[in-house]
Amino acid sequence: MKKLAGVMASAAILAGSLVTGAYAQETIKIGVTQPLTGAFAASGNYVAQGARIAEDEINRAGGVMGKKIQLIVEDNKSNPTEAVSTVEKLIQRDRVPLLIGAWSSTLTLAVMPKLEEYKVPMIVETSSSGKITTSGNPYVFRISPTSAMEAVAFQPLVKKMNIKKADFLYTNNDFGIGSGQEFAKMLKENGVQIGISETMDPKATDFSAQLAKIKASGGDSLFVTTAVEQLTIILKQAKEQQLKVRIVSCGGSNSPDQLINQAGEAANGSFHTVFFPPWFPEVVKNPEPAKRYMDEWTKRGHNVGGLTEGFRGYDAVYVAAEAIKKAGKAESEAIRNALWDVKVKGIYGDIAFTKQGPAGKESGQHMPGVYLVTISNGKVAKTSF
Amino acid sequence: MSRFLPWLLVVLLASVPFWMTDYYVLHIMITTCIFIIAAMSLNLLLGYTGQLSLGHVAFFGIGAYTSALLSLGFQVNVFNVPFGVTPKPVWFAMLMAVIVAGFTGWAIGKLAFRVRGAYFVIVSISFAEVVRMVAVNWVELTQGPMALNNIPALTLGTGEFELSFLRKPSFYSLALAVAVISYIIIARIVNSRAGRAMNALRENESLAMSVGIDVTRYLVIATIVSAAMAGMAGALYTHYIRIVDPDVFLFIYTVTMVIMVITGGKGTLAGPIVGGVIFGFVPEALRAMAIKPEIQWIIYGVLMILIVYFLPRGIVPAIERFWAGQKPGDDEAARSVPGALQK
Amino acid sequence: MDQLLQHLLNATILGGTYALLGIGLTLIFGIMRVVNFTHGELYAFGAYCMYALVMPLGLNFFMALVVAMALGALLGATIELLLLSRLRGADIDTTMLVMIGAWIALQNAEQLAWTGVALSINNPFPSEPLIVGPLSVSWNRVYVFFVALLLILGTYYLINRTHLGKAMRATFQDRDTAALMGIRIDRIHTATFALGSALAAAAGALLGPVFVVAPTMGDLAAAKAFAIVILGGLGNIKGATLGGFILAFVEELGAGYISSGYRDAMGFLLIILILLFRPTGLFAQKERVG
Predict the structure, then answer these.
(1) What ipTM was estimated for this complex?
(2) Which of B30, B66, C89, C213 could be a cystine partner for C119, CB 3.0 to 4.6 Å?
(3) What is the 3-state secondary structure (H, E, C) of C98-147?
(4) In a domain, B89, yes or no
C-alpha cells in the first residue's frame, strides 16, 4: 500500500512536471483562480478569456524582461474551499509569484489568509465587498470598485430618477449583502424610504415568492445584486408577475447584452451599473486599449455578452505584467512593493493604487469609473439624466 | 509476519514528514488521510451493519462547523434571546465536535432506523440536505455561503512547550495518529460482541431479532461511533483547511466516501484505507495529466458501476482470496455474482 | 390578500410539474424496486433536448416537447437495458450504487457537452402575462400547467386502462405470479423505466423555458422528486400526484411567509416530519417498512 501510494505520488509529480516543466525556464508564471464551473461559471470564463487576450498581446510584444508570461488558470468551482485549494496548488506546486482572482467577494475573502501565510500578492479584478481592502491584508491590490464607491457614484441619480421607496433583492453572499448594505445606506441618506430586503441562495432559480413579497411592499425601485444568470430569471419572472417597478442591477456583473439576448422584452426598462460600457467605448478614459480589447474579443468569437466582464481579466494581466517589469524580478515581495508604483492606462481607467485599511497593513485600491446604462427596445442606451 | 506488517506500515508512514520535502504531496496525503478516517467511519455502518447511509457527510460537516464555531466564538439571537460563545481553545472545540456529532448520530439513529431500505436511504440524504440548508441560511451563525474564515490552527501547550499544528509536517502526524486510533477503535468494536451482533443483523435482520439481538440498539451504537468519528474527521479538516462553507455538506462528498468503501471492500478493516488511498491520489494524478474535472467524475461514475458488477466485495477481499489461493466456486466467489446478493 | 392569491396561483402551477416529476420516480420504484438516482439527470436531459431542438435547430416549440420526451424514453430504456437488466433480483443497495454511478457520469457528461453556462430557451407565447384581477401569470406557465395535467391524466389512463398498464400493475403486485402468467417481466421493466424517464424529460422540457437550463438543474429536481415520493409513499402514484401539489404549496407559502431562504429545505423538513409521524407516507395503503 505504501508502495502504491509512493508510485502514484511520483507518477503525479512526473506527469505534472511534463505538463508545466517544458516552459519552466523561459516563462514568468502568473496564477489565476476563477470560477470556471458552478454558479458563477459564465462570468469566470469571461474573465479568463479576457486575461488570455492580454497574455497573448504582451507576449507578442516581447513579453516581460525578455521572457514570456504564462497564465496558469485554475478552476475554483465557485466554491470558497476549492478557491483555497487552487491557491494552495498555484503557490506550492506552480510557484507563481503573483496571483489574479478570485472573482466573487466570498472567494477572494476565502483565499486572503493564504496570501498572508505564503506572502504572495494578488490582484483582485472583480470583487466588490468593502471588507477585502479594509481588513488589513497588505497583499491585496484591487482594481475593481467597491460597493461603497458604486453607491457614491449612483448618488446624484437618486433625485433625477425620483426614487421614493426602494426594495432590495440580493444573493446572501459577501457580494450581495455588501452591495445591499451600501446602497441602502446611501439611499437612506438621500431621504429614500427603504422597503424590504429579500435574499436568495446564489444557486436558486425560482424567485416567485420573493417577487410576490416585493410587489406587496410597493416600492418604486428594486435594487438587485447578483450575477447575470439569476438576473435573467428575475427580470423574466418580474414581468410575469407584473412587478411594475424600476429594476436597478448593481455590481457590474449584469452583462446587459446577455440580458437582452436571454430575457428578451423583460429586460426593457431596467437599469444597470457597469464598469465598462462596450456600447460607447468613447466615453471611457482610455478608449485605445478598450478598442483593442473589443476587436480581439470579437475576432476570437467570444460571446459579446461577456465584454463587460472580460476586460477585468485583461486589465489585471496588464497590471501584473507592469508590476513584474517594475520589480525587475519575478519574486513576490519585490512585485508587492512594485505594485504601489504601477501606472497602467487600462480599461478600468488610469490604474494606480491608493492605500486603504489599517495603517501599516494597507491594501491597494484603484478608483475606476462607474457607468449607469439602461435597456430600451432591446438596446443598451446611455441614461438620459 | 502478518502481525507486524501493519505496524511496519505505520512506522513507515510516520516517517514521511522527515524526508518528504514537497509540501504539495504532503497536502494530498493529509487530505487523503482525513477522507480515510471518514470512510472508515462510514464502513462501520455500511460494511458492518449493512445500512446504506447516504447522509454521512452531515456528521463530517457538523464536526467541521462545531469545531470552527467554538474556536472562533459566535453571537446569535434565538427568538430575540442573545446567545454567545467566546472563542474556546482548539483542542476543546475538536472534542466538542466529536461529542456533538456523536449526539447527532444518536438522535438520527433513533429517528431514521424506524425505516429501512429505500426509505432509510432517502431519509439519510434528506437529513444531510436539511443540515446544509441550515448552514446556508443561518447566516448569523454560520456566515452562510460566505464561509467561516480564519479558523485557528490547533496548538497544544503554551510558551516554550507550545506544539503548533499549523505547518504541514506536524499536521500530517496528527492526522495519521487520529487515523491509527480510529482504526484500532473500529477493529476492537468489530471483534467484540457488538460487532458480531452487527454482523448477524447485516446477514439476516429477522433472524438476528428472533435470537434476541436488540437490533435497533446495536444500530444506534454503530451510528453514534460512526458519527463521532466522522465528526473528528470534519474537525481535523476544518483546522487544516482553516475555512468551512456549506458545500462541505454536498452529496458528492458522501458519494466519494461510499466509492472509497465499496472499492476497497465494505465490511473489511483495510477496505476503506485501500479505497481511500486510491481515490485520494487518483484525482491529483488526473489533474496533473490535465484531464478535465468532468472527465474525472465520469471515470468515477463508470468505475463505481464496474466495481459493483465485477468486484462487488471490493479489492481487499479479492486480494485475500488470491492470497489464500481459493478457487472460484466456494461461497465467497458465489457472492460476487450481483444477482446472488441476498434476497 | 392579493399576495396570498398570487402565492396560491404560483403553487398550483408549480405543483403540476412537481407531480409529473414524482409520478415518474414512484412508478419506477413501485414496479422495479429501484431508487432511480438518474431521475434528475433525465429531467436535465429533457431540458437540454428542448434547448438543442428549439434554439440551434429551430424546431417548433410544441413538437420539440414530443421529441424531447421520446429521446428521454430512449435514454431511459438504454439505461435500463445496459445497467439494470443485469441486476434483476439484486438487492436494493446494489442497484442504488449503480444508479448513483450512472447519475454522476451523466451529469458530468452534460457539463462537458454544454459547459457550465446557463442557457435560455425562447418561447412562442405573448410576452405580456395573463392578467386576472390582481393576479398575473405568464402564458408559458399556463401552458406548462395544462400539459403537465394532460400528461398525468395520460399516465393514469395508460396504467389503468391499457394492456401494458395491466401488466405493469400485475408486476407491481406480485412479480413471480405475473411472470408465471406469461408476462414478460423484462419488457415491463424496460417499458416502465422508459415511461418514468419520459415523464422526467417532459418535466425538464416544460420547465427549461420557464427558468434556465444548467447542468446542475437536475440535482434540485431529483431532491424534490424524492421528497414528493416519500410524501406520497414509495410506489403510490396517487400519493405522488398529491405529494407534488402539497410540496409546491408548502414551499411557496413557506417562502412567502416564513423565509425565502429555506424554500428548498421545506421538502426535506417535510420528509423528516412525515417519517416521525407517518413513516409510510401520507397516503400509504399498506405497511412498507422493513
Answers:
(1) 0.84
(2) C213
(3) HHHHHHHHHHHHHHHHHCCCCECCCCCCCCCCEEECCEEECHHHHHHHHH
(4) yes
